[in-house]
Amino acid sequence: MKKTILILSVILLAIAAHAEVITWNAPEGFASDRYYQVRVNGVEVPVFDTPIASYAVFDFTGEVTVEVNTSFDVRWVDIRPLRMNLAPEYTGDNSFSFKLSNPCNISLELNGRIRQQPLFIFSNAPEKERPSKEDKNVVWFEGGKLYKDVALELEDNQTVYIEGGAVVQGYIWAEGKKNVKIMGRGIMDGQFVSQMPNRKQGFIFLRDCENVTVEDIILHNASTWQIVPWNSDKVTIRNARIVSEHGGDDGMDIVRCTNVVVDGVFAHTKDDCIAIKSHGAYPDDENTENILVRNCVFWNSIWGNAIEIGFELYSDEVKNIRFENCDIIHVEDGATISIHNADRAKVSDVVFENIRVEDSRQKLFDVAIFYSKWSSDGIRDEEYERKNYVFGAWDGVLVPPVEKTDPKHLERRGSVENILFKDIQVVGGLLPFSVFCGYDDLHGIEGVTIENLTYMGKRITTLREAKVSQKYTRDITIK
Question: Is the pLDDT of residue 4 over 50?
Answer without folding.
Answer: no
